[in-house]
Amino acid sequence: MLKIAPSILAADFAKLGEEIRSADASGADWIHIDVMDNHFVPNLSFGAPVIQSVRPATRLTFDVHLMTEKPETLFPAMMDAGADRLTVHAEACTHLHRTVHQIRELGLPAGVALNPHTPLSVLDYVLGDVDLILIMTVNPGFGGQSFISGMLPKIRELRGKLNALGRPDVDIQVDGGITDQTAPLVVEAGANVLVAGSYVFGSSDRRSAIASLRG
């Protein structure tokens, strides 16, 4: 089933709880939360205290994407703040297998994200352990970037690998430049979770924006 996960990085921070409630009421499936540390990516967003403060705004899944160095040091705080899922970057993890299992030992679904330049081969020995793979279709760190169409073959190849391994249950999430024009392309390639920030939160009709992503 296709899931839409609006990214609150594009929301109005002055009324973040209200923005999350709006996304919920407009038909979102998950709320995507980009945690940035100004080291792994050239931007700084928010951490566990902000997540905890907006957790009462919705019962939707909080899909936390850790764009940070040493993400494992944040796991307990993120879980306590209300994260329902955690995704780490393969590029930030010296021992990716161990990191994935640290998430699962907390009882949370584990995701691994890949930057555009990172090959799928880095996942070869963890595909049996993950619940979600996030393919970045922009370079991480800023919202509002243009979709990198060269990532479509990567998504298609990943879906083929998962099917061949008997893991069609693993979610393929795509983040970056998702609009009503690019959504059908990534879904056709095999993605089933779409992160959309500016397209949803920048719309005057968020319900229609989310519906248009579903096709």
From TrEMBL:
Binding positions (a divalent metal cation): 32, 34, 65, 175
InterPro entries per record: Aldolase_TIM, Ribul_P_3_epim, Ribul_P_3_epim-like, RibuloseP-bd_barrel
GO cellular component terms, semicolon-separated: cytoplasm
Pathway: Carbohydrate degradation
MF-aspect GO terms: D-ribulose-phosphate 3-epimerase activity; metal ion binding
Record's cofactor remark: Binds 1 divalent metal cation per subunit.
Active site positions: 34, 175
GO biological process: pentose catabolic process; pentose-phosphate shunt
Binding site for substrate: 7, 65, 141-144, 175-177, 197-198
The reaction(s) this protein catalyses: D-ribulose 5-phosphate = D-xylulose 5-phosphate
CDD domains, alphabetized: RPE
Keyword Signal applies: no
Keywords assigned: Carbohydrate metabolism, Cobalt, Isomerase, Manganese, Metal-binding, Zinc
EC number: 5.1.3.1
Signal peptide: none
Function of the molecule: Catalyzes the reversible epimerization of D-ribulose 5-phosphate to D-xylulose 5-phosphate.
HAMAP family: RPE
NCBIfam families: PRK05581.1-4, rpe
Protein family: Belongs to the ribulose-phosphate 3-epimerase family.
Protein name: Ribulose-phosphate 3-epimerase
Organism: Cohnella candidum
